[in-house]
Model the fold of this input.
Amino acid sequence: MGAVSRGRSLLVGGSAFALVVLAAGFLWWPGGGKASRAYELAPESALPARVRAAPPTVREAYRFAMANREILSQIPCYCGCGAVHQNNYQCYIKAVNADGSFVFDDMSLG
Done:
C-alpha cells in the first residue's frame, strides 16, 4: 500500500471514527435517551458528481460537513494530511464561496 493510499485510508477511517464518536457522545449525553437529536444533512443533490459517485457513508460525511460546520470545526483533523487541515470540517470543505456554494476537498474521497 502506497503512502497516498495509506493516507486516504487513514482519512476515511479517522473521519468515520470522528463521526461515530460524535454521534455516540450525543446518544449517551445526560438526557440523551430522553430526547433524540437529529442533525441536518445537506441534500445529496448539492454534492458534485465526483462526490455523488462515492460510497454512501462518504457522501453522508460530506453532506454532514456542509450542514454542520460548527460541529466539525471543533473536531481535530486526523486525516494524515500533514497539518494541511486545522479541523475535521476542512477535510471535506476547502471554502465556502460568497454565493454560498462549496469548494470541496477531495481527500476524503479515498
